[in-house]
Design a protein that fits this description.
CATH class of the largest domain: Alpha Beta
Low-confidence stretches: none
Largest sheet: 7 strands, parallel
Helix content: 25-40%
GO cellular component, one term: cytoplasm
Mean pLDDT: 94
Order of helices and strands: HHEEHEEEHEHEEHHEHEHEHEE
Distance between the termini: 31 Å
GO molecular function: nicotinate-nucleotide diphosphorylase (carboxylating) activity
Strand content: 15-25%
CATH superfamily of the largest domain: Aldolase class I
Keywords: Glycosyltransferase, Transferase
Number of domains: 2
Shape: elongated
InterPro entries: Aldolase_TIM, ModD, NadC/ModD, Nicotinate_pribotase-like_C, Quinolinate_PRibosylTase_N_sf, Quinolinate_PRibosylTrfase_C, Quinolinate_PRibosylTrfase_N
Protein name: Putative pyrophosphorylase ModD
Oligomer: single chain
CATH topology of the largest domain: TIM Barrel
Number of strands: 13
């Protein structure tokens, strides 16, 4: 790993409300220890350094948090950068009181975000070794109220978002079809008419369901909890169809088994695994300036 950006991230605006909520949660009533010691006005300097190899993420948000508390930022590595152990991630100056208010929130933000980005990067690397066109998409099942940071971390790791929210994609579940007498042909026909610019994905749970749905030419079949063997069998049978949908494998896919699914014929991996990654370790030094 080097400190060069792994991938160019799109511009993602930082919500000042989100940043304020982050530091308010930890320091909304001030820092009793720093205030009681009478050191809050001392000039101070802080650095955040990667303790283990990681894909940096959340750095801009951590910097914004410190700036909102009055710090000046001397250096910030771009999110999406590969950071070896010992790489400087963020450096700032302010009073001891200002930095003590924000350093733990900033550290936790970068550690959690880098954990997601680093696991995403690992899964993308494993998938593309087998199929360069493979896509690793993360679900919207990030911990509640963390989605803006989680989305950025996924992108920093080279992944894509399977769905950011319900408003942007067409994904048909059995829970939708129950209101249409499970008429999949009618459902797909209606979607092609009412949202012609969108791809249509249909979730299926068995090979038989997948073959039935495939007759109506959806764009993507989302295979819920298929084994690699089941996926491979479906992949082979679909070769005889005039229209072959892309296959998205979903359910329980992680770094240990992702290669099996790509080898079996999956075009897309749908996973929540990065959200449960161990945070990456970030070392902090807060000293007198």
């Amino acid at each position: 790993m080097s400190s060069q950006p792994f991938s160019a991230l799109p511009f993602l605006p930082i919500s000042t409300g989100l940043i304020e909520n982050l530091w308010m949660e930890d320091a909304g009533y001030g820092d009793l220890t720093t205030r009681s010691l009478g050191i809050q006005d001392h000039p101070a300097h802080i650095t955040f350094t990667a303790r283990d190899d990681q894909i940096a993420s959340g750095v801009e948000e951590a910097a914004a948090l410190l700036k909102q508390l009055g710090a000046s930022i001397d250096y910030a590595i771009p999110s999406g950068s590969r950071a070896l152990s010992g790489t400087l991630l963020l450096e700032a100056k302010a009073s001891a009181g200002q930095l003590h208010l924000g350093w733990k929130s900033a550290q936790s933000l970068m550690e959690w975000s880098a954990g997601i980005a680093t696991m995403t990067h690992k899964m993308v690397t494993l998938a593309k070794k087998i199929s360069p066109m493979a896509v690793v998409g993360c679900t919207r099942k990030a911990p509640p109220l963390t989605r803006p940071l989680a989305v950025k971390a996924v992108l920093a790791g080279g992944g894509v978002m399977h769905r950011i929210n319900l408003s942007e994609t067409l994904l048909v579940f059995a829970e939708h079809l129950t209101f249409m007498n499970f008429d999949i042909g009618k459902a797909i026909g209606r979607l092609k008419q009412t949202a012609p610019e969108r791809k249509i994905t249909v979730e299926v749970e068995t090979i038989e369901q997948a073959l039935t749905v495939a007759q109506f030419s959806p764009d993507i079949l989302q295979l819920e909890k298929f084994t690699p063997q089941q996926l491979h069998h479906l992949h082979e049978r679909l070769k005889f169809f005039d229209h072959i949908p892309s296959l998205a494998a979903a359910g329980g896919i992680n770094p240990e088994n992702i290669a099996d699914y790509i080898e079996a014929g999956a075009d897309i991996i749908v996973t929540s695994a990065p959200y449960y990654a161990k945070p990456c370790d970030v070392q902090v030094k807060l000293e007198a300036a």
